[in-house]
């Protein structure tokens, strides 16, 4: 069950996931990934791979102890990447685990990978196994058949999209809602970085507050953050869907590169996600040590809203009439809402009314002192 907290677009799961510490899991000799035909037809295949021997050891523990579960209790077949048939695969539709690991240069995030060719939702895998997975673990899928978008929407997840979720832990609840902005920023910077390093034209991927990614006026990606609170910590599952190579349902990054006359060496999911974690780890550490303010300038350069004029709805005192006023967006408030100014200079905080899919429809304002 989900409820929306008072923080912007930050969903929190009421039922905490079962907790099983990795310290309790024993190592065991390498087992080959053997599954019967019946199992492989009905169960979700999860392939585990670590960046180093440490994470590979943890992966082996998770497999041996059957520690990974799906939320609906449906069967799972867990293999190690080293034992998997897809290990040396060079097919575009199959996530290239080795290519991802080779481009990853983090010390915490993305180092334990749970890959699946097809599953319900990467988000459910990380949220449901939060306690079992080392922090920063990531689940990637080629296709999702029950992808979760915000407000209980379905997230279409066909081939060609980068679909992943990973885990973060935070202690200070006041800044938890801001972490989704750090995630968005790390993704836009990752795309810039990969384009630049490969001599591609730069793509103007922008953030539409609070957590959509837009390119040329169309949505190409979205971010979903959910959290549970346990033992004085916020366990955050962050999920990203980014349309890299499939024009449906809107457009994709590679189509934009083609429109710019660049058809060779298209963007690959593995490069983008590795660049994402390389950026995210740096931004995450800045965010925790210096606050979101240290990232704000870059964030405002990347979002679509500086100086945007938006309509806010206000009820009169007897609450029987609604009037509309225009305000100008100035930035973010410390709690992560929109900071705006009226034409006569009053500063206010804008909140979505909770009814509209588009956050910019039905904004309500709260006066700030
Ligand atoms: O509604 C939105 O804009 C957020 C969409 C987030 C989708 C991603 S795809 C990977 C991860 N797994 C899910 O089920 N959802 C997120």
Automatic annotation (TrEMBL):
A GO term for molecular function: helicase activity
Record's keyword terms, sorted: ATP-binding, Helicase, Hydrolase, Ligase, Nucleotide-binding
Coiled coil: none
Keyword Ligase among record annotations: yes
Domain BPL/LPL catalytic: 98-288
Listed Gene3D superfamilies: Bira Bifunctional Protein, Domain 2
Superkingdom of the source species: Eukaryota
Tagged with keyword ATP-binding: yes
The enzyme's E.C. designation: 6.3.4.-
InterPro entries, per the entry: aa-tRNA-synth_II/BPL/LPL, Biotin_CoA_COase_ligase, BPL_C, BPL_LPL_catalytic
Record-linked SUPFAM superfamilies: Class II aaRS and biotin synthetases (SSF55681)
Family: Belongs to the biotin--protein ligase family.
Protein name, as recorded: ATP-dependent 5'-3' DNA helicase hcs1
Source organism (scientific name): Salvia divinorum
Name of the gene encoding the protein in the UniProt record: HCS1
């Amino acid at each position: 069950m989900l409820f929306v907290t008072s923080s912007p677009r930050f969903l929190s799961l009421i039922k905490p996931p079962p907790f099983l510490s990795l310290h309790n899991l024993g190592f065991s000799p390498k087992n080959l990934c053997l599954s019967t035909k019946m199992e492989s037809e009905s169960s979700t295949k999860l392939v585990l791979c670590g960046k180093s021997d440490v994470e590979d050891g943890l992966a082996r523990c998770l497999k041996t102890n059957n520690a990974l579960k799906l939320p609906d209790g449906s069967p799972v077949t867990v293999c190690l990447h080293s034992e998997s048939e897809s290990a040396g695969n060079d097919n575009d539709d199959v996530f290239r685990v080795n290519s991802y690991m080779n481009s990853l240069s983090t010390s915490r995030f993305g180092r334990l990978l749970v890959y699946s060719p097809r599953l319900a939702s990467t988000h459910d895998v990380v949220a449901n196994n939060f306690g079992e997975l080392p922090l920063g673990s990531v689940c990637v899928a080629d296709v999702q058949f029950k992808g979760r978008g915000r407000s209980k929407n379905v997230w279409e997840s066909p081939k060609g999209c980068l679909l992943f979720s990973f885990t973060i832990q935070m202690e200070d609840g006041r800044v938890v809602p801001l972490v989704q902005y750090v995630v968005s920023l790390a993704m836009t910077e990752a795309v810039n970085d990969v384009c630049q390093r490969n001599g591609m034209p730069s793509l103007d991927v922008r953030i539409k507050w609070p957590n959509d990614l837009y390119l040329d006026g169309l949505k190409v990606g979205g971010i979903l953050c959910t959290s549970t609170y346990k033992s004085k910590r916020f366990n955050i599952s962050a999920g990203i869907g980014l349309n890299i190579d499939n024009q449906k349902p809107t457009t994709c990054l590679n189509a934009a590169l083609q429109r710019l006359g660049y058809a060779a060496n298209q963007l690959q999911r593995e490069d983008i996600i590795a660049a994402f974690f390389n950026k995210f780890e740096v931004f995450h550490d800045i965010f925790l040590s210096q606050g979101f303010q240290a990232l704000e300038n870059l964030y405002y350069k990347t979002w679509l809203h500086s100086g945007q004029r938006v309509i806010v709805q206000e009820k009169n005192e007897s609450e029987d009439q609604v009037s509309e006023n225009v305000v100008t967006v100035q930035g973010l408030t410390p709690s992560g809402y929109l900071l705006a100014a009226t034409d006569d200079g009053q500063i206010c905080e804008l909140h979505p009314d909770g009814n509209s899919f588009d956050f910019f429809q039905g904004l309500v304002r709260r006066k700030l002192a």
